[in-house]
From TrEMBL:
Gene3D superfamilies: Glutaredoxin. Pfam families: Thioredoxin. This is Thioredoxin domain-containing protein. SUPFAM superfamilies: Thioredoxin-like. It comes from Candidatus Accumulibacter vicinus. Residues 1-106 form the Thioredoxin domain.
Length: 108
């Protein structure tokens, strides 16, 4: 299921306080790279139905993306207890995403 990007970005402290593992996706609803990544994400995340997936619309004046040093979309950040475990920028295969998800051993 392709969910929309959150138009209102959460605070960095809210992201850092997420319990357990989570996938943070920065992008924009009109971004061609972001749109191309959605079927890849859906396929990779099918095996992880309980993993929180937070989609954040990024752009000029958006502080959260800058706090994560996001420069290109989509940027996928895999975090656990506020710590970045992996990062993918413009993934092109399901396998890339699955490999990053495997950085959550026994957590998802």
């Amino acid at each position: 299921m392709n969910r929309p990007f959150a138009a209102v970005e959460p605070l960095r402290s809210q992201i850092d306080a997420l319990p357990g593992p989570a996938l943070i996706e920065f992008g924009a609803p009109w971004c061609g790279y972001c749109l191309a990544a959605q079927p890849l994400l859906e396929a990779a995340l099918a095996a992880y139905p309980n993993l929180p997936h937070v989609k954040i619309e990024d752009g000029p004046g958006r502080r959260l993306g800058r706090s994560f040093q996001v420069k290109l979309w989509p940027t996928l950040i895999f975090i656990a207890q506020g710590q970045e475990l992996a990062r993918l920028v413009r993934p092109t295969t399901v396998d890339e995403i699955v490999q990053a998800l495997r950085r959550f051993p026994g957590q998802v």
